[in-house]
Request: fold
Amino acid sequence: MDGYELIRSPRKTLSIEVTRTGRVVIRAPQRVPMDEIRRYVSTHAAWIEQALARQRVRLAAHPEPDGARQAELKQRAQRELPPKVAHYAAVMGLKPTGLRITSARTRFGSCSARNSLCFSWRLMDYPQPAIDYVVVHELAYCTQKPRGAVLGAGRAIYARLSAAARDAALRAQENK
Reply:
């Protein structure tokens, strides 16, 4: 396989990354010979091709919107997300401290340590049930911070998610 970017660094292992834009990046320890890198890439050629195909499908399904479409999605996000957050926060008994609309490309949502929520306007290009799920998912992090905080915190988050998801499903049925 040709056409990859090689990055050498003081790491210990070889790795392959296929970026969102379809670039193939090989990361290698500084002292690994090129023959070994070529063999590594060659043995992973099928995986690389599959990953490139997945990225092409993703890009075709969700191309970068033009300026007018971006403005439309940002307006929709600012109009639709605050009421959704308020509704699901009430259902879940939560009070997030803030809400921001961002231009994040790789995350649809996040919840800070201070329980402030961020949502990418790109989320608005997806179906309503997906938007509702991301809102509920991020709200669930307002009470539980599972990243090393408490054993079982993940279970508590999923319990909250399932309760709010039932509400989301009911709302979807009502809106049909």
Q: What stands out?
A: The first helix runs from residue 34 to 43.
